[in-house]
Description:
Helices cover 43% and strands 16% of the residues. It has 956 residues and is of the alpha/beta class. It has an 8-stranded mixed sheet, with helices on both faces. A 6-stranded parallel sheet has the order 9-16-13-10-12-11, with helices on both faces. A 4-stranded antiparallel sheet has the order 19-20-21-22, covered by helices on one side. The longest helix has 27 residues, at 446-472. It is globular.
Amino acid sequence: xxxxxxxxxxxxxxxxxxxxxxxxxxxxxxxxxxxxxxxxxxxxxxxxxxxxxxxxxxxxxxxxxxxxxxxxxxxxxxxxxxxxxxxxxxxxxxxxxxxxxxxxxxxxxxxxxxxxxxxxxxxxxxxxxxxxxxxxxxxxxxxxxxxxxxxxxxxxxxxxxxxxxxxxxxxxxxxxxxxxxxxxxxxxxxxxxxxxxxxxxxxxxxxxxxxxxxxxxxxxxxxxxxxxxxxxxxxxxxxxxxxxxxxxxxxxxxxxxxxxxxxxxxxxxxxxxxxxxxxxxxxxxxxxxxxxxxxxxxxxxxxxxxxxxxxxxxxxxxxxxxxxxxxxxxxxxxxxxxxxxxxxxxxxxxxxxxxxxxxxxxxxxxxxxxxxxxxxxxxxxxxxxxxxxxxxxxxxxxxxxxxxxxxxxxxxxxxxxxxxxxxxxxxxxxxxxxxxxxxxxxxxxxxxxxxxxxxxxxxxxxxxxxxxxxxxxxxxxxxxxxxxxxxxxxxxxxxxxxxxxxxxxxxxxxxxxxxxxxxxxxxxxxxxxxxxxxxxxxxxxxxxxxxxxxxxxxxxxxxxxxxxxxxxxxxxxxxxxxxxxxxxxxxxxxxxxxxxxxxxxxxxxxxxxxxxxxxxxxxxxxxxxxxxxxxxxxxxxxxxxxxxxxxxxxxxxxxxxxxxxxxxxxxxxxxxxxxxxxxxxxxxxxxxxxxxxxxxxxxxxxxxxxxxxxxxxxxxxxxxxxxxxxxxxxxxxxxxxxxxxxxxxxxxxxxxxxxxxxxxxxxxxxxxxxxxxxxxxxxxxxxxxxxxxxxxxxxxxxxxxxxxxxxxxxxxxxxxxxxxxxxxxxxxxxxxxxxxxxxxxxxxxxxxxxxxxxxxxxxxxxxxxxxxxxxxxxxxxxxxxxxxxxxxxxxxxxxxxxxxxxxxxxxxxxxxxxxxxxxxxxxxxxxxxxxxxxxxxxxxxxxxxxxxxxxxxxxx
Length: 956
């Protein structure tokens, strides 16, 4: 491997967790936020998906795609999306990420992932993504790595064994050989109307076309090999295993628990829950395996596959010897011989190769030829012969392949006749030639050859997709043909108990809640006939279903995290009936009903009123404190504060309402406290609304009111959470958290920290001064001279701070650099202002030693435990609360101690904010009608009154 230009200063972050945690999405966002970056992905199909997403954001001139079969590298590209094996590591990148690092344990490909784990780095940031089973191994191999655990966004549960005909909608069935996949797909076609087929041998284009059948709901079932378990984001709700054993290249073996979890985890996407189970002849899963999958608990990976990359090209034997070297350290183990090494061992016996592989350059060229992949897999002798021919041509023609020979090879492949297996073999061979045309400098006019191989691959992919669809998807030709010839009114149309609408026994769509969703590849005329037939049952069915909904009790409905009102039934999956949309107030969202036009308007209005009433009761059940604050009969400042609390979902920054709070006495605060309002140092909040359910609802209401996609709230029980993606500060406040740097802290904990800091500050100041007291002789008198000197000490420190010796906000990673200077300044001031020693007397107590200036204090581990964070994160929280860090030397231990001291700049900034807000309020008042009345009243008070004489007589 070419040595990567990198630096040891870059941060190495490992984001580990199960499937459906958003790891890859996070890495792409981080990559695009840097000036340059590269991400290595396990599949060409996934790389293409990420590339398309990056192009939409940054444009096609800024993003490159590099795989073994495809290279799109614009001049000046800043971001590279690649397969792991094809990553160009001959340049420096600010950001570098490797996805699915647990593949470092794979017997065949693992050595490539291990090499990236050990050597590939970004100059500013490196991110490794994968399963949590890699945590211990990465700690041993990359000691300076940081770790972040990502919880699964949805729940994964075991649903037991089900027959093929009883599988729920949006199911994927997994088998581990092409023959088994085809056999199961045939059964599904007969019983369910059709199935999409996904195998690892398919080209990305053919695989995308099959996936589209499933994603577009043309079919409700997918049959696939374990290729489905790596990075493909599909709308799968249930994953069914038809087998629990596979052939791994050596022999048949049972699936490992982590492998089962990787595949089962494809069920459920984003916030939607998923299920898994068995089907066909597969035995039921072991309870221990089920528990491991549901709780994401697996045996850690103990060793990574390794292969030497410091190769000796002096001879073929020397090259093989270096490739077979044992691992240099523990936690690394040799993997199974990869295809490139097997090809090299086979070509070593070829006489034509032996004759030419006699120099270092020729041996290195031979190794490059051996790296050409064998996509067919089942014809290794044939592949070795092709590699031998390629090598001989390259050696005899100065590194170029003869165009006429290549054209002849392509002509033999460029045919779209034959069955599925024949087309699959041709597709595998053309993918090999696509790789050859992308190897640097082997072809005359390489761009033209790349275009030819790509067009052949596309034609074969389309032909294979058509063959698969024709074989495994029933287009209901006979039913539609009868409909075209006969009166559609005579068709047998039924709505089954499973909400499937059938025509002549064939499924044409499903009724989801109050909406009909047709399925199938039909012409416009065919769809018109089906729709006409379906209307005969859709209208009455929708009316009947709507009437039943109106009579349901409240416990039959639920609110999804995405803001959908669900109909809950024990025997069926939940169905979305309506979605919440922005209303006139944040606390009063509107209900948008999801229903077909066939539903009568009067019935539609009745259902909307039913769901609106349920929503109001649901919100008041869990957010009752907000509605009580909004509707409370209060007066003056208390009324204004209660209204603002309700409008801001139960949490306000105290600085934003300082004028209101300052004018409120205890009598006005008392009714608010009775309603659960807490007046803290930094925030005013309704503490009961910090519980998980109110928090989830508050963030949902905030997102709806602000036109945002709902985000999952912080995990319940956490007092602080790291910020892995940007969210609005108002969102964090609605969630009951305060953002400070790259960490967010729960507001009740912030209150306790702020109160503790204030008390510690007061205790420190008290310890630094002597109160006025009687003289040491026991008689009353004036205070001793110690207090003026102590005051002088504080004055000197405050003056020094006011002159600019104030700590700034901590940097993103490093603590502030000015702490040492402040410590020296504080020590100097303290030494100059130290009071003279008092005359020794037996009654005189020893003065309490203070490490820093007045008001400084130490925050020990108890503060960190309370905040649930480390020292750096605690420092950022204190900075947000208006404190800075200084360093002082402990005279007893002679060690430097970090102290916290209220920032003079923070105090000044707070006063300025209050003054600006007061001026703004005065300006608003000046423009109001009350200002004119007030001015007239003041003018009348200033006018002099005429003197009045007693007795009413005239002045003499």
